[in-house]
Design a protein that fits this description.
Structural class: alpha/beta
CATH architecture: 3-Layer(aba) Sandwich
Strand order of the largest sheet: 6-5-7-1-8-11-4-12
Strand content: 5-15%
Number of helices: 14
Largest sheet: 8 strands, mixed
Number of strands: 14
Shape: globular
Distance between the termini: 51 Å
Helix content: 25-40%
CATH class: Alpha Beta
Order of helices and strands: HHEHEEHEHHEEHHHHHHEHEEEEEHEE
CATH topology: Alkaline Phosphatase, subunit A
Length: about 425
């Protein structure tokens, strides 16, 4: 780290912030300063099923395949004629007219890290260039109003802002909220028993310190902004709008009950509340989908019931609050799972076939695009890639996938170089 005021360059500040997994709010704002809020474009939610969800046990069942391929679950009819999904997704079956299903997405990176990077950016991993995730691009294009973070990650963003810079990184909660436990976001909520009056007293003391050191911060542009970011951080902490968004106890009992008490239920609820408050993008990590063993037991007992209730409640609540028409929701994972069941009654990594759901703004609701072969092993007909999925999602968000950015070195970079919008999945 530099040792004199003149050595505090923009790069050193960004590097310092990037070292920590969880930034304080003030640190986060110093890195993420942006233009005043932009009300153009749409909001977005990414539900990322981390680990690789089993496509053929959820939205691409093959009931006529041999037993060692088709698995244990039966298909049920949805509200869309001729479209069937897993029997353990009854709530989503009743809402099939509210989302688009994309089947037969295919790639060849059956590794969690590489697959995640590919799907969450729409660009194949490149050791020389790190591409931004969806939320970081939204942060660049549609910054939220000043008292709100633009992109919030529950509980973290696995990939980050890439060449757009840390100023467009997510404010990470550090964990996901759990039913029955108070949820505190470091730097936003007043933890450790601190009252609002005590916070205001500390705020006044901070102002006195700012005055005492005024003049010292005239040496460098980044340092000159430190007191401004501190003031903004204090404004967020003191903002009833922001604090209320993270306070799930303020939601109505009816809606709280709708989301249920599964492990990730309140992550879906928090995403909804953040969008309602004015946050422009929320990334929700839902882990546990790496079902190498006991695939059907894990899906039936925990994963599918929680997903079914959480996602259906999210879509219903967004619509009830008048937000679904302006919020684009994408559900996916890094890859699918093997067509053939292994010896441990599980399924292993399989990138050559996977699925995605698109709902809300920009989605052709009630549609099914793409298909796989009789064993759900390969696309049958048109092949869609993660590049195409990303181009489609950006299009739904109101961002052209051919948008061109420049790296710090001045190199022009197309947002999604090889992707094409999946026209049959968008309105």
């Amino acid at each position: 780290m530099p040792h004199s005021p003149r050595e505090f360059s923009r790069r050193s500040l960004l590097q310092a912030g990037a070292l920590g997994a969880g930034l304080s709010l003030s640190q986060f704002l110093r890195l993420s300063h942006a233009a005043p809020g932009n009300d153009a474009g749409r909001s977005g939610i990414l539900i990322f099923l981390q680990g690789g969800p089993s496509h053929q046990d959820m939205f691409d069942l093959k009931p006529n395949a041999p037993a060692e391929y088709r698995g244990e679950f039966r298909p049920i009819q949805t509200t869309v004629p001729g479209v069937e999904i897993c029997e353990h997704l009854p709530k989503l079956a009743k809402l099939a007219h509210r989302y688009a299903v994309i089947r037969g997405i295919s790639h060849n990176l059956a590794d969690h890290g590489l697959g995640t990077r590919y799907v969450m950016t729409g660009n194949r991993p490149n050791p020389l260039l790190k591409h931004p995730t969806f939320g970081s691009v939204v942060s660049r294009e549609f910054p939220a109003r000043e008292e709100l973070p633009t992109h919030v990650a529950i509980d973290h963003d696995p990939e980050g802002p890439g060449f757009l810079g840390v100023q467009h990184g997510a404010l990470s909660t550090g964990e996901h909220p759990r039913p029955g436990r108070p949820f505190e976001v470091r730097g936003i909520t007043l933890g450790d028993g601190i009252t609002l009056r005590q916070f205001q007293a500390r705020n006044a003391l901070a102002g006195d310190l700012d005055n005492a050191f005024r003049g010292y911060d005239q040496l460098d542009e980044e340092v000159r902004g430190l007191d401004r970011f501190s003031r903004q951080a204090r404004a967020i902490i003191g903002s009833p709008r922001t604090r209320a968004a993270f306070d799930l106890t303020q939601e109505s009992p009816t809606i709280l009950q709708r989301f249920g008490s599964h492990e990730h239920s309140h992550s879906y609820l928090l995403a909804c509340r953040l969008i309602e408050a004015g946050v422009r993008f929320v990334t929700v990590l839902v882990d546990g989908w790496d079902t190498h063993n006991a695939n059907f037991t894990s899906l039936q007992k925990t994963l599918l019931p929680g997903f079914d209730q959480g996602l259906s409640a999210l879509l219903e609540t967004l619509e009830e609050k008048g937000l679904l028409s302006t919020t684009s929701v994408l559900v996916t994972g890094e890859f699918g799972r093997t067509p053939k069941i292994n010896g441990g009654a599980g399924r292993d990594h399989w990138a050559r076939a996977m699925f995605a759901l698109l709902a809300g703004a920009g989605a052709k609701m009630g549609s099914v695009t793409g298909q796989t072969d009789a064993h759900a092993a390969e696309p049958d007909g048109v092949v869609y890639t993660p590049d195409d999925l990303a181009a489609t999602y950006f299009h739904a968000l109101g961002i052209s996938p051919t948008t061109e950015y420049q790296t710090e070195a001045g190199r022009p970079i197309t947002l999604v170089r090889d992707g094409r919008v999946i026209r049959d999945a968008i309105a």
